[in-house]
Amino acid sequence: MKKNENVDWNIPMLELKNVNKKFLEGTSTEVHAVRDSNFTIYKGEMVALMGPSGSGKTTLLNLIGGLTPTTTGSIKIDGSEVTVLNEEERTALRRDNIGYIFQHFNLLEFLTAEQNVMLPLLVQGLSNEQAKRRTTMMLRELGLGGRLEHFPNELSGGQEQRVAIGRSLITSPAIMLGDEPTGDLDRSAETDILKMFRRINSEKKQTLLLVTHSEWIGAQCDRTIRIENGTIIETGLEEAKL
Ligand SMILES: Nc1ncnc2c1ncn2[C@@H]1O[C@H](COP(=O)(O)OP(=O)(O)OP(=O)(O)O)[C@@H](O)[C@H]1O
Ligand SMILES: [Mg+2]
């Protein structure tokens, strides 16, 4: 694998220390979804997170994105502890620093493709005109120039997925978290999206963490973190640093 020259090994963008997540704590059906997880991802890395279905990948991403609270442990994003933030602060962190592609797109059904992608920019305070210009460019780049006015239920699964990718990247977030971001795309569209991820990674030094079941995508990333039964069994960090 070719070494990624854009990584800044002095800046940890994402640090997990002894992170645990239990669902339905204390009940007989308690699920210990993430166990004592430790890893660090540095600025500018493009990392794959792989593991079997049910191993805790989505749970881990939701903890990192501050969408669900941790049971115990520490998560730092760009040096700031996120587990101590209140709801409002976590929302601000996500809005300003994190792009999130959900496993099930979560597009707003009553907004068009264009409006879905524009929304994060409007929330950040950009004018309608500026937001529209950037959004049109982004959607064209994603091959959706002819679908701006379509609503999610008028798009194919792969098109919806590309809208979701556009929405997460439109603000150029420092960290992009993708939960099987290309799961509904064919190989050709997947290759295009991976090229786009790599380009933003090298041009803007964005840090990417991509959950995937595909060894091919894993091989396109700088390294692979592997999880099994909630336990991180491999981080690939040492090899990546060599
Ligand atoms: N809200 C919840 N309440 C209880 N258990 C949950 C909850 N969310 C997830 N789990 C359990 O936690 C475990 C990890 O789930 P998670 O969604 O993180 O898996 P995953 O690795 O993303 O799997 P997949 O590849 O199928 O998406 C599973 O056993 C799941 O049943
Ligand atoms: Mg999942």
Provide a count of the helices.
8
Give, in spatial order, the strands making up the sheet with the most strands: 6-7-8-3-9-10
Amino- and carboxy-terminal Cα gap: 11 Å
- What series of H and E elements makes up the topology? EEEHEEHEHHHEHEHEEH
Q: Can you tell me about this structure?
A:
- With 242 residues, the protein is an alpha/beta fold.
- 36% of the residues lie in helices and 27% in strands.
- The protein has one domain (8-241): Rossmann fold (3-Layer(aba) Sandwich), CATH 3.40.50.
- It has helices spanning 57-64, 87-97, 113-123, 128-141, 157-169, 187-204, 215-220, 237-241, and strands spanning 8-23, 31-43, 46-50, 72-77, 80-81, 98-101, 175-179, 207-211, 223-228, 231-234.
- The strands form two sheets. A six-stranded mixed β-sheet has the order 6-7-8-3-9-10, with helices on both faces. A four-stranded antiparallel β-sheet has the order 2-1-4-5, with helices on one face.
- Helix 3 packs across helix 4 (128-141) and helix 3 (113-123) packs parallel to helix 5 (157-169).
- The protein starts with 7 loop residues before the first strand and ends with a helix.
- Adenosine-5'-triphosphate is lined by residues 23-24, 31, 33, 51, 53-59, 103.
